Structure formats: C-alpha cells, structure tokens
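Q: Hi! Curious about what Large ribosomal subunit protein bL12 looks like structurally. Here's the sequence.
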Amino acid sequence: MAFDKDAIIASLKEASILDLADLVKAIEDEFGVSAAAPVAAAGAAGDDAAAKDSFDVELTEPGQAKIGVIKAVRDATGLGLKESKDLVDGAPSVIKKDLNESDANDLKSKLEAAGATVALK
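A: Let's find out. The predicted structure is below.
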C-alpha cells in the first residue's frame, strides 16, 4: 500500500473537529503514544546552580594544619589573628559572603592548599 500524504491531508481538511479528535485518540491507542505536548519541569536543580552569581565560602573543617588555615583566613579577610583563629576554631563558619564565582573558587583553592575543607554555598 502506497502512502499518499496529499490524500490524507485532503481528508483531514474535510473532517470535523470531532472526527479529528477521534482520529487522534485512535492513533494514540494504536501506537501507544500521546499527542500531549511535553511539559518541562520548572526550576530544575541544574538551572539554579547555573543561575547563581554570588557564593559564600564556608570553612567546613580546618584540617590538621590549623595554623596555615588561620593564616590563609587572615590574609583573605583582613581580620586580626584572634578573629581569624576564632573563625577557624568555630568551623563550620562562613569566611566570606557574596563573592563572584571566580573569587570564591580562588579563596577555596587557597584554603584547601592550607589544608582546610571548604564548601561553596
């Protein structure tokens, strides 16, 4: 049997809306498909991460080399020795807030190089 799309289109033009709805239902049943338009999930998790433009750098664990981490925190924040030590001892604690992605990753790298465990939030 040859497929004549022009004849099918001509038949569809002459059909009523009710006939076309029945045709769609029959095609769905016959082939196990749906004519409904797919709906995308709003606000997928990947989209939130991509849209984020400011990050908080959180020290989650100072690690074994606490003195090096205190120095890195002091350099990054401009805080005094006691304040920097208090931040490190109080881990988990936010070291800096609202940094752009590049600055946040730089600070994270410096803290990790000093031996700390760091998370970007």
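A: A fun detail: Residues 73 and 84 are 6 Å apart (CA to CA).
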